[in-house]
Amino acid sequence: MPGPATKLILAGILTYASVVMHEVGHYIVATLYGLEAYIRVVTTGGIPSIAYTNVDFPSQHMMAYLPGTALAGPMMNLLIASVLALIMFLIDDWASGVVASINAGMCITNALPSFEMVNMTFRILPLNDGGKAVYYSSVYPGMHVLCWLCIALMSSLSIIILAYGIRYIASS
Prior knowledge:
The protein is mainly alpha-helical and 172 residues long. The protein has helices at 4-32, 60-63, 66-91, 94-111, 129-137, 141-171, and strands spanning 36-42, 45-51, 115-117, 124-126.
């Protein structure tokens, strides 16, 4: 059975891998939509780059793909958090709880939309994945509602996982 120091190192490695997997989520969905995509791995994780060379951008056809591509990263964090929370409960492992909680937090902070105003004008730029999804989904009213529902569901599930993870870690 690994000791606490080994578990902490493993939790750090898994957290870094989670950041990279977040970017892989963007990559997978972008390539499924037929976009050229690649990931540049850096010390803070990864930076996805999606090339719009094979589409007319910003056509309405293209705008339909962007909310799904933007929300794919937080969805990957939710998936990782769910799997690790299950492991945490099944084998009673606090390191899994730490990384599950971190991933749930990453899902929340990336899925809840945040924006910035540019030069005190009414032009708004999205700052994170949720902001991009809401911004790009506004082209289609039905998609806009679906996007908000998806964000609400992902955030709610993440809050539950985060709360249980913190509770579990505190009681260990």
